[in-house]
Amino acid sequence: MRSKYAKIVTMPTVLEIEGFRFFFYSADRNEPPHIHIRKAGQKAKFWLTPPEVPFRIHPAYEGKFKPAEIRRILEIIEENQTAFLEQWNEHFNS
Question: Is residue 88 part of a domain?
């Protein structure tokens, strides 16, 4: 039986590619836009800002990903940033 104080947190996945899972925590609605990443037990979090902002994508934390994996994560985020921001706004503003 679930406690009446339990909070259900959903984690909508927005992209799965090359073993990386990019997702949001629904409880993060009061934070600036960002994306969580997991792969093989590792995790990271990157801030997303509008594409017109210089130096826009940067890590909140990189976890224990290897430098090559961080570079690939950044590439994937850059390729999908607009879609991630659209999905963020759709999820948290609906």
Answer: yes
